[in-house]
Every structure is written in C-alpha cells, then in structure tokens.
C-alpha cells in the first residue's frame, strides 16, 4: 500500500498523486504537503454573540429561542450547553443538549458563560 495522506477536506483515503499535487477523487480537492502544513497552523477563531472567543470544552447559554429542524420542539432562551466542540461549517458548534440530544448550533446564537 502507498503512504499517501488522506484528503484534508473530506478525509477520503482514495487520494492520488498528480505530479507535485495530491488529488482527492471524491471531492476534487487538490493540495500540496506545504499547503497542508500551513492550513494546520492557521486555526479558525470562533466568537460568540458578544465577541468572546470560544474554545473546545467551553460552556455556553442560548440567547434566542431556536426551532429544531424536523421537529416541533424549541430550544428555549437560557438553555445551558456544556462542553461544546468547535467544527467547520455554517453551524460551528457541535454539542449535546439535555432533552434534545446531539445538535449543531451557530455561534451567533450563544454567549459564553
């Protein structure tokens, strides 16, 4: 087997080398080893509604009633969420909320405790 790195975008193991560039056939992402190390050093900063920097493991409070997609229930204002995890994407907080289970939230609708 070859020792090619997984795709940094979709984590696919089916990457191949095209000259000095690595290519992912699943998401069509192209990168070099130099750009991969630059991206790992460059960390995205996520801020809450008040501008405080959020980190993995922080506790936050919901500042607005949030409708749960695919359900008639609502996450109420003041709901406390413990041990968040920051992820890439539109909804940048991954968490578990008591009574709802696993959920993704946008950082603009929470404030740090």
UniProtKB/TrEMBL annotation:
Every Protein YjdM C-terminal domain range: 46-112
Pfam families: YjdM, Zn_Ribbon_YjdM
InterPro entries tied to this protein: YjdM, YjdM_C, YjdM_N
Annotated ranges, domain Protein YjdM N-terminal: 4-32
Family to which the UniProt record says this protein belongs: Belongs to the YjdM family.
Alphabetized PANTHER family for the sequence: PROTEIN YJDM, PROTEIN YJDM-RELATED
Protein's recorded name: Protein YjdM
Organism annotation: Sporosarcina limicola
